[in-house]
Design goal:
This protein has twelve helices and nine strands. It is α/β, with parallel strands linked by helices. Residues 1-9 have low confidence and may be disordered.
Length: 292
């Protein structure tokens, strides 16, 4: 089951996170909300008028037990999204995180084609969650909201350069909530939160909230600052530099512009992964690391 969940990119969400994200999108008791990758129903159970989509039959069955008032569709999301005529007041969920090496074939082709209609030309090196979020947005009613758990890659990945402008071109307000403390302590993956409001409008900036740790709340946290798309572009299409203070970014800019300073990329190439061939030798166990 664990390996199957990993294959499907499923990392189920802590209850306090799921319940908060649902509260962030629901405005009325009668609102109809969607979880496009509902897993075991962690989001669905927090709102009576919910619809879920789930590719794993076992998880879908569990979702129906946890959220008996919800309508749970079995099947692959992108195919379902292209066929449904239903539109929703809100969307909340935790999209599947499948890296580009495993995100392939017909599903990827459908996802990238659907995302292009929404204004993002993702490359084949895109992880599954980015087109998932954008295609889901297209199922909102005018003025609708959505809130997602997303990988912190939204702050630095190349494909975020397609996602962020596409979201700003579809919503009146886009916010990213960065939590310094892990949302999923057992996972190596850092996660942030994404909240968008006012589907059918547009905006020219991203509101960024920087939190030490996530705390359950009725409303989305207020942004520490707004980052215009021009500022974002000046930082290479990356949100992560805005975790630094203005003073820290000025120091970085000053150093970068000095003729005596070289960028690491001028001297060497860095790869995002490696195969050691002997993990027991090259990787320290926590107990070994603590001994130092």
């Amino acid at each position: 089951m664990i390996s199957n969940r990993k294959r499907l990119g499923q990392y189920f969400t802590p209850d306090e996170v799921a319940s908060s994200l649902v509260r962030w999108v629901v405005r009325r008791k009668t609102d109809r909300i969607l979880d496009p990758s509902c897993g075991d129903g962690q989001f669905l159970k927090h709102h009576r008028h919910s619809v879920g989509v789930e590719i794993c039959a076992e998880a879908a069955s569990e979702a129906r037990k946890q959220a008996p008032s919800a309508l749970v569709h079995g099947g692959e999301f992108f195919r379902w999204a292209s066929a449904t005529s239903e539109r929703f007041d809100g969307i909340a969920g935790n999209p599947p995180f499948i890296r580009f090496q495993s995100f392939k074939g017909e599903v990827r082709a459908e996802a990238l084609a659907a995302a292009s209609v929404m204004g993002a030309n993702f490359s084949a090196l895109t992880s599954s969650w980015a087109p998932f979020v954008l295609v889901a947005a297209g199922l909102l009613k005018f003025g609708g909201r959505m809130a997602f758990v997303v990988p912190a890659e939204i702050g630095h990945a190349n494909y975020a350069r397609e996602l962020i402008p596409a979201l700003c071109g579809r919503f009146r307000e886009v916010r990213v909530i960065a939590c310094r403390e892990k949302l999923f302590p057992a996972l190596s993956e850092d996660c942030w939160l994404l909240w968008c409001d006012g589907y059918g409008s547009r905006c020219g900036e991203v509101g960024m909230s920087i939190l030490d740790r996530f705390m359950p709340s009725m409303e989305v946290p207020a942004p520490n600052r707004g980052i215009s798309l021009s500022e974002w572009n000046a930082m290479g299409g990356r949100l992560r530099p805005f975790l630094l203070t203005v003073e820290e970014r000025e120091i970085y800019r000053d150093l970068k512009n000095r003729p005596t300073v070289r960028a690491f990329g001028d001297l060497a190439n860095a790869s995002i992964g490696y195969v050691s061939g002997a993990n027991d030798f090259f990787h320290l166990r926590p107990s070994q690391a603590n001994s130092f």
